[in-house]
Design brief:
By secondary structure, the protein is α/β, with parallel strands linked by helices. The protein is built from 14 helices and 15 strands. The chain starts with 6 loop residues before the first helix and ends with a helix.
Length: about 400
């Protein structure tokens, strides 16, 4: 019998966001002046108090195994944090993991059986369908158009449900659109979820990055019935500029948390011990950093949105949260550049990086093959430079 690899593993798509970021980095290392709009992480350093907590953990010898679901100390702090979302999760309902992706992997490994369907509103973060498929689930995509601010309706959810539907993924604020679901929208979706008796996997990783008068509402906080059916996912990566520390966490029923903890105990033993101490400090320490980072992102968002609104051939709905602008480039498809028609988003992205030294994220892998994602988690200086180059490109189209 010939040696072969797993068909499931081979079917997994590599992350296009990581690929374009790596390409831009490689070009920069060669001395090429590239502006990279691909960043999916804050461009701020982790605050000093958090780093100092990690150093203290090292010096104190806190380098051994911890409980599989995370230290009790950290889970208590997360329990207190959830109260700000009007959520009551006891420490034994919380599982700390090695990052947000790991949390989602734990969730779907716990709730899915082979053939179960998971409804994924489009546009979506590109890792969702891959994580679902790795857990033997079937992604079912429901498109939310620009006309509805890229948010699905309760009716769309209901129409997509079948007898195989197991869960809905809800991401608010959304990556890549930056849109935020209102209380009224969440109440309507929750009513369908309860009636259909399915789970909601609520990814709230960007909750602290909401601008203007918008408000973050955790769907699990609406009533007891939706609470029982929701797994709330969050982490410290975006809020505290801790992407590399790899700490995510979930709040759920005790039954789900117990199974997730058991799975994690075999897969990774426990989250990184030192990073747990750092995450504890992030949650219980001063929160001034979060406010100042949000203020700076809002400034960049406003600048980028205004610039794009005045450019030819592209448009965008002003994001309400996260740090991305989701740009509709469909009108470029009937244009030509240097005598060649621009016929797809990947072609446009290729021209931008090769001819204009601007790296953008093609959103084909996010479910929209006529959009790009621009991150404003880069300096305002680079945002200006990059947008100047994009505008120069657009001016060349005929």
């Amino acid at each position: 019998m010939a040696l072969t690899l797993s068909k499931k593993a081979q079917a997994v798509k590599p992350s296009s966001t990581l690929a374009i970021t790596a390409k831009a980095k490689e070009m920069k290392e060669k001395g090429i002046d590239v502006v990279g709009f691909g960043a999916g992480e804050p461009d701020f350093n982790t605050p000093d108090n958090i780093c100092e907590a990690a150093i203290k953990a090292l010096k104190d010898g806190f380098t051994k195994y911890t409980p599989a679901s995370g230290t009790l100390e950290l889970r208590k702090a997360i329990s207190e944090k959830f109260k700000y979302n009007n959520l009551n999760y006891e420490p034994d309902q919380i599982v700390v993991s090695n990052g947000g992706k790991h949390s989602l992997t734990n969730v779907f490994s716990t709730i899915l059986n082979p053939g179960d369907e998971v409804i994924i509103p489009t546009p979506y973060w590109l890792s969702y369908p891959e994580i679902v498929k790795l857990a033997d689930g079937i992604p079912v995509f429901v498109r939310a158009d620009k006309s509805q601010n890229y948010k699905i309706t309760a009716k769309q959810l209901e129409d997509a449900c079948t007898d195989k539907t197991k869960a809905l993924i809800l991401n608010s604020p959304n990556n890549p659109s930056g849109m935020v679901y209102t209380r009224e929208e969440l109440e309507a979706i929750a009513e369908v979820v309860v009636r259909k008796d399915i789970y909601v996997v609520s990814d709230e990783m960007y909750e602290t990055l909401i601008y203007g008068d918008e408000e973050h509402i955790s769907i699990a906080s609406l009533n007891d019935e939706i609470y029982k059916r929701t797994i709330t996912c969050n982490g410290v990566s975006k809020s505290y500029a801790m992407t590399g520390w790899r700490i995510g966490y979930t709040g759920s029923t005790k039954e789900i948390a117990k199974v997730m903890g058991s799975i994690q105990s075999h897969q990774t033993s426990n989250p990184n011990s030192i990073a747990q101490k750092a995450a504890l400090e992030a949650l219980v320490g001063p929160q001034d950093f979060v406010k100042s980072m949000k203020k700076e992102y809002e400034r960049r968002r406003d600048y980028m949105s205004e610039r794009i609104a005045n450019m030819k051939h592209i448009s965008a709905v002003k994001p309400q949260g996260a740090f991305y602008v989701f740009v509709d480039i469909s009108k470029t498809f009937n244009k030509t550049y240097k005598g060649h028609r621009i016929n797809d988003v990947d072609n446009l992205a290729k021209i931008l990086i090769e001819d204009y030294k601007v790296a953008v994220i093609s959103c084909d892998d996010f479910g929209f093959n006529d959009h790009i994602r621009l991150s404003y988690a880069i300096s305002l200086e680079n945002i200006k430079k990059g947008l100047d180059r994009i505008e120069e490109f657009l001016e060349q189209l005929t």
